[in-house]
Specification:
Order of helices and strands: HHHHHHH
Number of strands: 0
Low-confidence stretches: none
Mean pLDDT: 81
Length: about 200
C-alpha cells in the first residue's frame, strides 16, 4: 500500500504541476494573481507524496492504538509550517515561494516522521514490512474511503466556486479575506474534533 500511495502521489503531483496554469485561468485568476497562483500550486505539488503519507499514516496510528502520537505528528507538521511562515515572510521578508516552501516542509515532517516510526521496531501493533500485491485489498481500501473522497471533493469544489464568485464581487482582497476566514475556521474545527476525541482533557 505504501508503494502504491507513493506512486499515486507522484502521478497526482505531476498532473497538478502540469495543469496549475490552465486551472487557475479557468477559476478566474486575474493576470496579477496568475503567476502567484501557479508558483504556489506547483511548489505545493512537490509535497504531494509526503502529504498523502501523512493522511494515510493517521489511520495507521489509530489502528496501532497510538492516536496521541498521530495528534503530535499533526501538531508538529502544522507548527513547522506556521513557524517557517513567520520566519521566512515575517522575519526575513521573503516572497510567496517561501510560504509554499514552508507548507511543503510541514508536509514532509508529517509524512516522514510516521514513515520512520513504522519502518523500524516500535512499541505499537504495526510495523512496515515487505509489500505484497493484493489488488483486492487496494479495491476495498479505495471503496472504504469513497465517502471521505466525496466529502473532500465537495468542500474543494465549493471553495473554488466561492472564490470564483468572490473575484467578481470583491476582487483579490475578497478572496484573500475568504482564505483567512477559512483557515481560521480550520483551527476551531480542529479544537472541536480534538476535544470530542478525548485525546486532550
Amino acid at each position: 500500500m505504501k508503494n502504491l500511495l507513493i506512486a499515486a502521489g507522484l502521478v497526482l503531483g505531476a498532473i497538478g504541476f502540469a495543469v496549475a496554469a490552465p486551472v487557475a485561468r479557468r477559476l478566474g485568476a486575474t493576470e496579477t494573481m496568475l503567476s502567484y497562483c501557479v508558483l504556489y500550486a506547483r511548489i505545493n505539488m512537490l509535497g504531494m507524496v509526503p502529504l498523502m503519507l501523512q493522511f494515510s499514516f493517521q489511520s495507521f496510528f489509530i489502528v496501532a492504538e497510538k492516536p496521541k502520537l498521530g495528534l503530535y505528528v499533526t501538531l508538529a507538521a502544522g507548527c513547522t509550517n506556521m513557524f517557517l511562515d513567520w520566519l521566512f515572510m515575517g522575519v526575513l521578508g521573503l516572497g510567496l515561494e517561501s510560504a509554499a516552501a514552508a507548507s511543503v516542509t510541514g508536509m514532509i515532517v508529517g509524512g516522514v516522521i510516521p514513515l520512520i516510526y513504522f519502518g523500524r521496531e516500535n512499541s505499537s501493533l504495526l510495523k512496515l514490512g515487505r509489500p505484497v500485491r493484493d489488488f483486492g485489498v487496494v479495491a476495498r481500501s479505495a471503496t472504504n474511503g469513497a465517502s471521505e473522497f466525496m466529502s473532500n471533493i465537495s468542500v474543494s469544489v465549493v471553495s473554488m466556486m466561492y472564490s470564483h464568485q468572490l473575484l467578481k464581487f470583491a476582487g483579490e482582497r475578497g478572496v484573500s479575506a475568504y482564505g483567512i476566514i477559512m483557515y481560521t475556521n480550520f483551527i476551531f474545527i480542529g479544537v472541536f474534533l480534538v476535544s470530542r476525541s478525548g485525546l486532550v482533557r
